[in-house]
Amino acid sequence: MMKKNHLFAGMIFVFLLMTTGVWAATPDTTGPIKIGFMGNMSAPFSLSAKGAATMAVDEINQAGGIQGRQVKLIVEDTKGEIPKCVEIYKKLVMNDKVLAVFIGEKVEMGVAGMEIGAELFPEYPHIFFSTIGSGDDIWHRVRDNYKKYRFGFQTYYAISTNYLKILAPDNIDCFKNQVKAKKVAILYEDMEWTKPLREGIPKVSPALKDIYKSKGVNVVYQTTTSLDQKMFNPIFEEIAKSKADLIDCVVGYIDQPAFLKQWARSSARDIPVFIWGGLAGMPPIWKMTEGKVNGVMVGSSLVRVPITPKTIPFMDNLVKNYKVGPIFGSHTTYDTIYGFKKAIEKAGGTGNIDKLIKQLEQVEEVAVLGTIGWNAKYHYNLPPPKYVTPIVQWQAGEMKVIYPLKYKMAEYKAPKDLRQ
Is the separation of the CB atoms in 29 and 66 below 8 Å? Predict the structure, then answer.
């Protein structure tokens, strides 16, 4: 009778452990370390990120792997569809038994992955990285429910708090000291990522225009444009009337070739333009605008300046051996894999997922664009000056770094002077 009672009690204990999630599977500690990568394989940014992931894995394996274990990369195509993303995520975690899932795509995909990952995590411990998605939706989940979302990390450092507290003051420094601008016109694109910049963040930061004003730069005009906008001439005419010294374009996804061609023909053509990111910071824009991008400033990581010893070799190797350009998302994907590698080594292996998470919260590693690492509390990528996106200016067909000063390649030149 006693044996039956003990057996029954043991069965109840096991049942409770399983149903409460206290007893979870542990990651595989033998054989290859599996990494899953997914993205939209018809999108240049996902293809570039895939090439960078492949390159990182190849380099690590050629150097002996991670603690003697080879790394296996499993690549999947989301086709840009959220249901497909969820399906792939489940396959990678449940069937392929990957230790980490990388999503190299827009933030909506990252959020979808993080949600299904949170459901799977108690039974299938793993790590999730979003290496392209910007904005606040991912790290806010870690902030609001650390226990549930602690497995998630955001490597793309474009989050609202960093924009307002770090990048905005850097922009002002460049505007005032390089361009000599005192009056600014701001153009926002109507997207979720610009909303905190337009409105501010309660108890965290005022809006962008108020930050500029507090630093001695007056905003004399501001407007918001939709992504399907094609005619920008009326905006340029209003900006010209405002007597602005600079056009600050808080955009990344509008039709930048159309925007720049119209700027170059408008009455605002002699007013310098700064674009926060996007196609204007990529080499093809020169031909796409027939050189009309000349004189434009833009935040770009696609310039050949040795931010670290890894920068130039990364760019050259990616183009030569993996046949893709180093556009946005490639650097962050590549650097994330190396940060992940270092965290595994610091954790002493892959057997304890929470120990690995703690190491990811502490790790810092030399990266392509500075230092890779994550905020210990909220899991977003370390911001500038740790991780750098230089401000470049298009000058006669080439992007030249004008800021930060330590990476400066050329003096700023007024657009009208570059056209002569």
Answer: no
Q: How do 398-403 and 391-395 pair as beta strands?
A: antiparallel
Residue 363 tokens, joined: 């790790």
190-234 pLDDT, tens digit each: 988 899 999 999 988 999 999 999 999 999 999 999 999 999 999
Which residues, other chains included, contact 387 with Cβ-Cβ below 8 Å and sequence gap of 6+?
A: 157, 367, 369, 370, 371, 372, 381
Sign of CA dihedral 154, 158, 159, 161: positive
User: What tens digit of pLDDT does each residue of 38-64 get?
Assistant: 999 998 889 999 999 999 999 999 999
What lies within 8 Å, CB to CB, of 44 at 6+ separation is: 324, 325, 327
Tokens of 13: 């204990």
Cα separation of 335 and 366, whole Å? 8
β-pairing, 364-367 vs 127-130, is unpaired
Task: Decide the pairing of beta strands 297-299 and 391-395.
Answer: antiparallel
Q: What is the pTM of this model?
A: 0.86
Task: Give the pLDDT score at 20.
Answer: 42
Which tokens go with 170? 């850097």
Q: Are 275 and 256 in contact (CB under 8 A)?
A: yes
- Tokens for 332? 């962050």
Say how far apart CA 215 and CA 280 lie, in whole Å.
27
Is the previous residue joined to 257 through a cis bond, with omega within 30 degrees of 0?
no
Query: Can you tell me the distance from the alpha carbon of 48 to that of 318, in angstroms, rounded to the nearest whole number?
Result: 8
